[in-house]
Amino acid sequence: MKKNLLLLTLIILIASSLFVTSCKHDVTCDTLGFKLEANATNASDATSGDGKLEIKLNGGTGFSCQVTQPYNNNNSVFESTESNEIYNITGLDTGTYTITARNSFGCIKSNTVVISAP
Questions:
Q1: pLDDT of 29-48, one tens digit each?
Q2: In the chain, what is the straight-line distance between the N-terminal and C-terminal CA atoms, in Å?
Q3: CB 68 within 8 Å of CB 76
Q4: Residues 95/68, Cβ–Cβ less than 8 Å
Q5: 3-state SS, one letter per residue, for the chain
Q6: pLDDT digits (tens, 9 = 90+) for 69-95
């Protein structure tokens, strides 16, 4: 009986440690409050190419950031592996842009913004 109780206790302890290990990464991302904020400044007209994006990241370190245009075969218009918290991108045409950011913990956030013209 004692042997079975000891074995059951050992199984419970191992299962508990596996559960904690498997969700540790998710808890880290949630605990950090990793956030991506993107603000667009519209272009002065449809052909000026003077639209702007301001991207703010927080919740972690070691950020990387990529901006793509889905209608343009997802071509990257901006990419950085510098660990900045704020990126200012200028000279953008009107259109839809997808921002994808990652922090050093592997947490990924994505946002879509539209730059339009009057």
A1: 666 778 889 999 999 998 89
A2: 80
A3: yes
A4: no
A5: CHHHHHHHHHHHHHHHHHHHHHHHHHHHHHHHCCEEEEEEECCCCCCCCCEEEEEEEECCCCCEEEEEEHHHCCEEEEEECCCCCEEEEEEECCEEEEEEEECCCCCEEEEEEEECCC
A6: 866 665 778 878 777 788 888 988 899
Q: Are residues 59 and 88 in the same domain?
A: yes
Structural contact between residues 59 and 33, judged by C-beta atoms closer than 8 angstroms: yes
Q: Which amino acid is at 42?
A: N
Evaluate if residue 102 carries a pLDDT over 90: no
25 and 43 together in one domain: no
* 46: containing domain: 34-115
Q: Are residues 15 and 72 in the same domain?
A: no
Indicate whether 38 and 28 sit together in one domain.
no
